[in-house]
Design a protein that fits this description.
The complex is a heterodimer of chains A (331) and B (312).
Chain A lengths: L1 H19 L20 H11 L1 H18 L36 H37 L1 H16 L2 H13 L4 H6 L3 H13 L2 H15 L2 H8 L4 H37 L11 H8 L8 H28 L7
Helix pairs in contact in A: 2-13, 3-4, 3-13, 4-5, 4-8, 4-9, 4-11, 5-9, 6-8, 9-11, 10-11, 11-12, 11-13, 12-13
Chain B lengths: L2 H29 L4 H6 L5 H11 L5 H13 L14 H36 L4 H16 L2 H15 L14 H31 L2 H8 L4 H18 L2 H18 L5 H10 L3 H29 L6
Helix pairs in contact in B: 1-13, 5-6, 5-8, 5-12, 6-8, 7-8, 8-10, 8-11, 11-12, 11-13, 12-13
The chains are: A mainly alpha (331), B mainly alpha (312).
Chain lengths: 331, 312
């Protein structure tokens, strides 16, 4: 099956080369060699990614959820912060699509609004942590010497740190009622503190990964050539090393988003995540565990959505990895 | 570098990491607002009794001195008093929680090895067969990626509420299978999926090697090839999943112990954090970091043992 799809990928590259023929003048020797037509690695990866139906479906699903939660306040949804005291622990009905929770909040709209903390923590946290990890990895790998030694030891330290425990500690320290930080940030303190903590703790694996890639590329001839042409260190890093790591970094970042969302849920389960009145998927599912005997939809629906979210990020990451790094794909 | 020198270097860097972890946690905890003694004694405590207790615990000294005192105690295995429950030391509290956490972790790992590894071998040996590879791996993918929260909700609805077979949650001693079954199985589920998927890819890689073909060609029984020749060589890549296993176990412990109300280390960590019982939080953080660091060091030493190139 794997072989077939690989053959398919080749023929597909062939056909898209065909469509490019009109735009790109063909080399005069007309050898019919596919490689002769310039097709950037990014474009090749995109073509490979497009063929992976599961990954594309995951991407569409995630984008749909993202749009849905962003425009939630303009949709005809019941306000999830206003309880309906006449309808508590209600089963799904026409009025409340997925029923209500123990306080009478509409579950369906709470779930849509509840995606916000997950997306904010996951995406913002992953973007910041990726920037940190990539810049430290590039610096350590390219500069070497004492910079490498220092950054690598620091990475070892942060890698060993139980990130969940530190996040737990920071949530409690900075968002309790005595904390000036918590008071300054107001209602959203927990989401903000969580995003900052994840961003500051999430980079070690990425740093090691980028450092390894940089060490590998640094010895290659294209870097030597760039240096011979007189390009500065900055130029080599920005124009030659960085673009070569992009694809694989994107893969890692996708897995990071999934990981952060998962940790956000775990913190919510421990009572240290996002709190009322802000709706949050993990909080919803956890609160409802106590009412399981009365109405199991309340806990199963949000946790099922969470599962879909995490699985979709995993499929997306797998698809991106296969697209950018076809050699490592599982047979 | 000889093996001895490598081990010493690795252990030295391990100690540095532990010092770093204690340093960061200690200052984070102590610089944060909120006076643990005042919280422990309640808002009506007199200033005198607060300062008396602070003096007794050494909290009136400068922070660097406090840190050194703490480290001196740590080296001797004394983790200090608990501010919230003054009758107990942190050692007492950890002594109660640690065996419970280790017991759960042990069973989860045993189940993962006994169930996950054979499933992985099966999938590799009967590669691309519908039932033994594709469906098997799809199932393990689900086990690996479904968060325990959903499993707990579904399992409680079926086994506790509908069938009344198992209690919803709780801890009833080390030997109560009824109480342990649900938390341990859900704890293990993710690791089972992880082990099965890892074992399959390790095994596939080994089975594609030339020496396996040679063994087949000379007429060796297939089970002998798989379990004697191939299995041995999956051990080396298998060491690489020890680190992720520990990470999995630590995060899992937080979910399982808190949702099933099991008084292990993870629940103690959360409760002490919420109660501002700093010495306990500090100790559990160091303990968890120690677990991660020791396993990583052992993995590296194992690699150095089997593959001399690592020592360079």
């Amino acid at each position: 099956m794997a072989d077939e799809s690989r053959l398919g990928a080749v023929s597909r590259v062939g056909t898209s080369v065909g469509t490019l023929e009109t735009a790109v003048p063909r080399p005069s020797d007309d050898s019919g060699d596919v490689l002769a037509v310039p097709l950037s690695p990014m474009r090749q990866a995109f073509i490979r990614f497009r063929r992976n139906r599961l990954a594309v479906a995951s991407l569409i699903f995630l984008l749909a959820l993202l749009v849905l939660t962003c425009i939630a306040q303009w949709l005809p949804l019941i306000d999830p912060t206003v309880p309906d005291p006449a309808n508590t622990d209600a089963w799904p009905s026409a009025q409340h699509l997925l029923g209500t929770d123990g306080n009478g909040h509409d579950l369906f709209s709470a779930m849509i609004y509840g995606l916000r903390p997950a997306f904010v923590v996951g995406i913002v946290g992953a973007v910041v942590t990726t920037i940190l990890g990539v810049s430290m990895g590039l610096a350590a790998g390219f500069l070497g010497g004492w910079v490498d030694a220092l950054l690598s030891r620091f990475t070892d330290l942060m890698f060993a740190f139980p990130a969940l425990v530190l996040a737990l500690l920071c949530e409690e320290l900075f968002t309790n009622s005595n904390s000036p930080v918590g008071n300054a940030l107001g209602d959203q303190a927990r989401v903000i503190v969580m995003t900052v903590v994840f961003a500051l703790l999430g980079w070690p694996a990425l740093m090691r990964f980028v450092r390894g890639l940089t060490l590998q590329y640094k010895e290659m001839q294209f870097v030597e050539a760039a240096r011979a042409l007189g390009l500065s260190n900055w130029g080599i890093v920005l124009r030659h090393l960085l673009p070569n790591t992009w694809g694989l970094v994107l893969v890692q970042a996708t897995f990071t988003v999934g990981g952060f969302i998962y940790t956000e849920i775990v913190l919510s389960l421990l009572g240290l995540g996002v709190q009322v009145p802000t709706p949050d998927l993990g909080y919803l599912a956890n609160q409802a565990l106590a009412d399981l005997e009365i109405n199991w939809v309340e806990t199963v629906a949000p946790s099922a959505l969470l599962t879909l979210l995490i699985v979709a990020f995993a499929f997306l990451g797998d698809g991106l990895r296969d697209a950018f790094d076809p050699q490592t794909r599982e047979s | 570098m000889g093996l001895g020198a490598f081990v010493i270097k690795r252990l030295a860097s391990m100690i540095l990491v532990i010092i770093g972890v204690t340093l960061i946690t200690f200052f984070l905890v102590h610089l944060a607002p909120g006076d643990p003694i005042r919280i422990a004694l309640g808002i009506h405590a007199s200033g005198q009794s607060v300062s008396q207790l602070e003096h007794q615990y050494g909290l009136d000294q400068p922070l660097p001195i406090q840190y050194l005192n703490y480290m001196a105690g740590l080296v001797q295995g004394r983790l200090g008093p608990s501010y919230e429950s003054p009758d107990f030391t942190v050692n007492d509290i950890l002594g109660r929680g640690l065996p419970i956490t280790l017991w759960l972790g042990l069973w989860a790992t045993v189940i993962a090895i006994v169930v996950g590894l054979p499933l992985g071998v099966l999938a590799a040996v009967r590669h691309n067969k519908l039932l033994s590879d594709n469906l098997n791996m799809a199932g393990n993918m689900i086990l690996y990626s479904v968060p325990p929260l959903l499993l707990i909700g579904v399992a409680r609805v079926i086994f506790s509420i509908d069938l009344h077979w198992l209690p919803v949650a709780g801890w009833n001693g080390f030997t109560s299978v009824q109480y342990l079954a649900m938390p341990v199985l859900i704890y293990a589920s993710g690791i089972v999926g992880f082990y099965a998927r890892s074992m399959r890819s390790f095994m596939l890689e080994v089975l594609n090697q030339q020496y396996i073909r040679t063994a087949k060609a000379k007429g060796l029984a297939y089970w002998k090839i798989v379990f004697v020749h191939a299995a041995k060589n999956t051990l080396v890549p298998f060491a690489s999943i020890l680190g992720p296993t520990i990470a999995f176990l630590v995060v899992g412990a937080f979910i399982i112990e808190n949702l099933f109300n099991i008084p292990g280390i993870a629940q103690i960590t959360v409760q002490s954090t919420l109660a501002n019982d700093y010495n306990v939080t500090l100790a559990t953080t160091v303990l968890l970091a120690l677990a991660v660091v020791v396993v990583n060091a052992l993995t590296d030493i194992f690699y150095a043992l089997v593959d001399p190139r690592v020592r360079l």
